[in-house]
Amino acid sequence: MGPVTPTETSPRPALRVCPLLHTADPRHSAWWRHAVIYQVYPRSWADSNGDGIGDLPGITARLDHLRRLGVDALWLSPFYPSPQADGGYDVADYRDVDPLFGRLADADELIARAHELGLRVIVDLVPNHSSDAHAWFRTALAAGPRSSERDRYVFRDGRGAGGDLPPNNWESVFGGPAWTRVTEPDGSPGQWYLHLFDPAQPDFNWDHQQVRSEFESVLRFWLDRGVDGFRVDVAHGLVKRKGLPDHRARTHMLGDTEEAAAHVLDGHAPEPTHQIPYWDQDGVHEIYRSWRTVLDSYGPPDRILCAEAWVEPQERAVRYTRPDEMHQAFNFDFLGTPWIAADLVAVIERSLLAADSVGAPSTWVLSNHDVVRHATRLGFPPGTRRPNGIGAEDPQPDRELGLRRARAATTLMLALPGSAYLYQGEELGLPESTDLPDQLRQDPTFVRSGGEEKGRDGCRVPMPWTRDAPGHGFGPGPATWLPQPKVYGHYAVDQQDGVAGSTLELYRTLLRLRRELSLGSGSLAFVGGYGPDVVAFVNGNADGDRLLVVANLGAEPVVLPDAAEVIEASAPLGDGLVPTDTTVWARWPWRAGHRTTDSLDA
Ligand code: GLC
Ligand code: CA
C-alpha cells in the first residue's frame, strides 16, 4: 500500500499502542472461550411442514447455512412442550419436544446432524419458572393449600380481609402484579402464587430439594442426548429473599426504563440488582456449583453453561462465571451501549477486566429474541431510549444508517477476544419489523403493559431465505406465523449469497478471518491518538499476528497507519481513509516497543 496523504480533514494521527488490557489465551484453549454461537429462535427459522411455524426438522434441513456462515455452535431457544404463553419460555415438560416443533427423535437428529457438520448444540434451560400447564403445577392446584405439592412453587395466603390482596407488592417483569390468585378445588377464592413473568409462568421454589434434583436430572437428560451446553434463562432469579419483603420498583429488563435512561444521563450507577429481593440473591450460586459438577462429569470436550443474568454492578455479575460456576454470561452491557466511541471503549475495557478477574472469557452480543434488532436500534440517534418494540405510529428508524452502523458494530464485535453471540437474521442485516398490526402481536408484554410496550414480536418474524418464494422460503407454503415486512425479500439469503459486499458475505468473511487469526483467543490493547470518536485496538494472537481494528464513529474520515494492510471493512474505504460509521480490520506489523508515529508507519 502506498503512503497515505493526510488531508486537512484527516491529519495523520500520532498513534500509540496502550499497554495490554487483556492477554491472549494459551494455544488450544477450550472451545467455548472463543466460540461464536448463533441463536436460533425455532418458531422463526425454517418451517418444514407448511404450518407457518418453524420446527426442528426445518432447522436440521438448513444447518448447512450455519456451517457456511462459519459459526461454532447454535443455541436453540425453547422447543419443549408448552402452551406458548411466552414463546416457549413457559415449559410444560422439560424432557420432550412440543408437537409444534416435532418429536424427540427430531431433536436427536438435529443434534447428530449438527455434530456431523462440526457445530455444537446448546439448548435453553428455563429453571426459574415452569408453565402453569406443567404436571407439578396442575397437581399443586389440585392438592390445595399447605400441601407438599404446593411447596414446589411459591404459594402464599393473601393479605387483607379474606386474603384479597396479593402477599406482597412485587410487580411482574411483563407488567401487572407478580401474583395471581387461584380458585381452590372447592370453588372458594384461594391462595396466590408468584410469577415474576406471565401468570402462565409460576416461579419454582428453589428451597425445595425436589426442584433441585429435578433440574439436575433434566440436565442429564439432555447431556445424555448429546447437547454441548445450556443457556440458562433468568439465572439471577431462582432464589428469593427470605420473607419475600415488599419492593417498590418494576423491572423492565428488555428496554430502558425512564429511570435507567435518567441514570445514564446523570451519570449515576443504577441500584445494585441484589437489593431487589427477587434478583441476584447469594443463594443462586450454590445451584450453579452443583450443576457445574454435573456438566464436568460429561467432559471433555467441555459442556457449558451460559447465564442470562441481568445483574449490576459488574463485580456481582462476574460471580456467575467463577471457575466452579458457569462458563459464560451474556454481556448485556455491551448490547445496551449506544453508538458512542467513548462508551464502547469503556464497556470493552470494563467487560474484559471483569471477566479476567474470574478467569472467564468475556462474551459479546448485539441482538437476541428479546431486544430490537441492532440494524434497527442503531438507526436512531445515539442516546435514544432503547425501546421494547416499535409500532407503526412510533418514530421510525433510518434503515440505511442503521444497517451501516450495524455492520460496523458487528465488525467491531467479532474482533474482540472472547465468545460472541449472533441472533438469527442479523447475518442478513435484517431490520426489525416495525409495523406489525397490534392484533397480531403475541408477546405477553404487549397485553400486560396495556400496549404501552409493543414487545418483542418485531425481532421474531420468520426468516427470509428466498426472495421469490412464498413466505420468502420460510416454509413450503406461504404461511408465516407473523407477517414478514415488505422489505424482507430484499434481505433474503439467496439475494446475498455470493454477492460481494452483501452483509451475509461480510459475516462469512469476518468469521473466517476471526478463526484464521484466532481473534477470539487473542489479546487486546487499545490504540490511542485517534481522538474521541474512534474505537481503535490491536488484537494479537499467539502466532504473533497483529490485527488493527479501527471503528470510526466520527463525522470525519480517519487515516490508517501506512503499514496497515486492510483485510476487511464494513463499508468501502476511500483511499485508505476510514469513513464515518465504518470499521476496518487491518494486518499491522506492530511489535511491542513501537511507540511513535514514525515507527508505526515504518
Ligand atoms: C428470558 C427470555 C425471555 C423470557 C423470559 C422469561 O429473559 O430471554 O424471552 O420471556 O426469560 O422466561
Ligand atoms: Ca412447522
How are the elements arranged and paired?
Elements: E1 16-17, E2 36-40, H1 56-69, E3 73-76, H2 104-116, E4 120-125, H3 135-143, E5 155-156, E6 179-183, E7 189-194, H4 209-224, E8 229-232, H5 258-266, H6 284-296, E9 304-307, H7 314-317, E10 328-329, H8 332-335, H9 341-358, E11 363-365, H10 374-377, H11 399-413, E12 419-423, H12 444-448, H13 488-491, H14 493-496, H15 503-516, E13 523-528, E14 534-540, E15 546-552, E16 558-559, E17 565-569, E18 577-578, E19 582-587, H16 597-601
Parallel strand pairs: 2-3, 2-12, 3-4, 4-8, 8-9, 9-10, 11-12
Antiparallel strand pairs: 1-13, 5-7, 6-7, 13-14, 14-15, 15-19, 16-18, 17-19
Helix pairs in contact: 1-2, 4-6
The protein binds alpha-D-glucopyranose (GLC) and calcium ion.
Residues 47-49, 51, 53, 55 line the site of calcium ion.
Biggest sheet features? 8 strands, parallel
Number of strands: 19
Strand content: 5-15%
Task: State the strand order across the main sheet.
Answer: 10-9-8-4-3-2-12-11
In short:
This protein has 16 helices and 19 strands. The chain is an alpha/beta fold and 602 residues long. It folds into three domains: 1-24 and 523-602, Golgi alpha-mannosidase II (Immunoglobulin-like, Sandwich); 31-128 and 209-511, TIM Barrel; 135-194, Alpha-Beta Complex (Oligo-1,6-glucosidase, domain 2).
